[in-house]
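Now read the record:
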Amino acid sequence: MTAFPKVMVQVPTTSDDLSPAMLDAADQTALWTFWMAIGTFGLLIGALAAAWFARRTMLAAVGQLLALKTQNLALSDQLALVGGQLALQQKQFDSDSADRRQREVSRVSSWFEPGHEDRSVLVLLENFNESPVYDVTIEVWVHRCAPDSPLLVYIFHQGIVGPNTKKSWQLGSGLPPRSMEAYDAYKALFVATHVVPIWSGNDQSNGIAIEMTVRDSTGTSWKRSHAGVISGE
């Protein structure tokens, strides 16, 4: 068996046993470790400061967004209020305009009067307005106690009626009736009387009635029933 030679290694145990080179390396390592710790701490402080500023910036931005949202809600409420007021004013304006037009049409009248000849009847039309009316149509109807009542006897049309103008037509004077049946029913009303038999509105009564249609300056057509009720068309 071969014997190996023994090698003796001496390990330094005190600082006196360390060489200057080893001491310098240890000092450099400690110094680098210290500065790295300082740098890491500085980075940590910087990160904390950046996070704090970022948080303040974020909170400020959130506050601005909330304030802007509140302003937008207030503006929306104001716009809705203004829109409601405008709609109400427009509705009032439309209602006033309709009332003015209806008053204008209400100043256009048509009625019956006895004619100059025996058992003749005049249809009169008068515009009491300071402005003309247009497309005036007057219909003369015979109402009687019969299943086929009423019957349209005559139609008078006037394209324009000037302000403060009065016109008249005589029934049966050169104007052909709408049908012989209607004309016979119309003539039968005058067999026993010389007065104008105006229909009372009762289904059990006989007589003649007027319905009139007038177009105002805005192009709206209005109809006046035999009872004087005005409605827009």
